[in-house]
Design brief:
Number of strands: 11
Structural class: alpha+beta
GO molecular function, one term: acyltransferase activity, transferring groups other than amino-acyl groups
Largest sheet: 7 strands, mixed
Number of domains: 2
Number of helices: 8
CATH superfamily of the largest domain: Gcn5-related N-acetyltransferase (GNAT)
Strand content: 25-35%
Pfam family, one: Acetyltransf_1
CATH architecture of the largest domain: 3-Layer(aba) Sandwich
Strand order of the largest sheet: 1-2-3-4-5-7-6
Keywords: Transferase
Order of helices and strands: EHHEEEHEHEEHEHEHEEH
Protein name: GNAT family N-acetyltransferase
Radius of gyration: 18 Å
Shape: globular
Helix content: 25-40%
C-alpha cells in the first residue's frame, strides 16, 4: 500500500529536505541559490510543499501572498501559485496539492487563489488541472500567458498590466532580467551568455530584488526571467546555447 504524505519545507528542515527541482544536483548554483531564496521568503508567508509517495518525492507546489509574488499580476488579498509540478501522474497528486493551497487561502481569509499558465512552455503548469479544480480563466496576456483564479466570493478579478510593448523599448542592448525564484535561471542565463559570446555580444544582467522592480520591469507575466535584445523579447524560459545563438543572430544586423 502506498504511503502518501505532504511535507512542508521550512527554514529548519530545508537543508535536510531541500527544494524539489535540481535535487539530483544539490551542489549546483541553481539549487543553492533557490534554497537561499526560500530561506528569505518563508517569513513572507511563502509555502513550499512536497508530496511524497513511500518517502520519495512525487511533486511539489509553491505559493505565496500576492504582495510578495514573483508573477506580474495585480490584485488584492489573493494567494498566487508560483509552481506546480508532479512527476507521478494519474494519481491525483496535482489536485491534492492545489486543494491544500485553496485550504490555506481560506484559512488565511484570502479572496482566492491565482495562477499564471502558458501552454507553450513547461516552465509554467498546465491550466487543465486548475480548470478541473474550479479555477476560471479571466485574462490572456502576451506570448500565450493565461490568468486563472479560484475565487471564494465576489471580489474584483486579478489582472495583468497592459504596457508590455512599452516595457521592451528601453532595452536596446542584450539584457537578462532575473530573480532566483527558479533554480533553472542560472542555467538559462549561462546558455544565453555562451550564445552571445559566439556573436561578440555583451550581456547585461539585472537581478530583480523587489516586487516593485518586478512589476515595473518584467517583460512578461512570468516575471522571474526575461531576455531582451534590440527591444525584442528573445525568451522567458531556458534556451539551449544553439537556440539562443540562433535567435540572437536573427537580430544582430537589424
Amino acid at each position: 500500500m502506498e504511503l502518501v504524505e505532504l511535507v512542508e519545507l521550512e527554514e529548519n528542515n530545508l537543508d535536510g529536505k531541500g527544494c524539489y527541482c535540481l535535487r539530483s544536483k544539490p551542489n549546483s548554483s541553481g539549487y543553492i541559490n533557490k534554497n537561499d531564496w526560500l530561506k528569505n521568503r518563508f517569513n513572507e508567508g511563502l509555502k513550499y510543499i512536497k508530496i511524497m509517495e513511500n518517502s520519495k518525492p512525487a511533486g511539489f507546489i509553491e505559493y505565496t501572498p500576492i504582495e510578495y509574488s514573483s508573477r506580474v499580476v495585480y490584485g488584492e488579498n489573493y494567494i498566487v501559485i508560483h509552481c506546480l509540478w508532479v512527476n507521478i501522474t494519474g494519481k491525483g497528486y496535482a489536485s491534492k496539492l492545489i486543494k491544500k493551497c485553496i485550504q490555506d487561502a481560506r484559512e488565511q481569509n484570502k479572496d482566492g487563489v491565482i495562477v499564471v499558465t502558458n501552454p507553450n512552455t513547461s516552465w509554467t503548469p498546465s491550466k487543465d488541472v486548475f480548470i478541473k479544480n474550479n479555477f476560471i480563466e479571466v485574462e490572456n496576456g502576451p506570448y500565450g500567458f493565461e490568468l486563472l483564479v479560484h475565487k471564494f466570493g465576489n471580489s474584483p478579478d486579478p489582472y495583468f498590466p497592459n504596457d508590455w510593448d512599452d516595457r521592451l523599448k528601453p532595452f536596446k542592448e542584450l539584457t537578462i532580467l532575473r530573480t532566483q525564484q527558479c533554480p533553472f535561471v542560472d542555467i538559462a542565463t549561462d546558455n544565453v551568455v555562451k550564445g552571445a559570446s559566439k556573436l561578440g555580444i555583451h550581456v547585461e544582467i539585472i537581478d530583480i530584488n523587489s516586487r516593485e522592480e518586478l512589476l515595473r520591469l518584467s517583460p512578461t507575466p512570468y516575471g522571474i526571467y526575461g531576455v531582451i535584445y534590440k527591444s525584442k523579447l528573445i525568451s522567458f524560459h531556458r534556451l539551449t546555447v544553439h537556440s539562443a545563438t540562433k535567435r540572437l543572430k536573427e537580430l544582430v544586423n537589424k
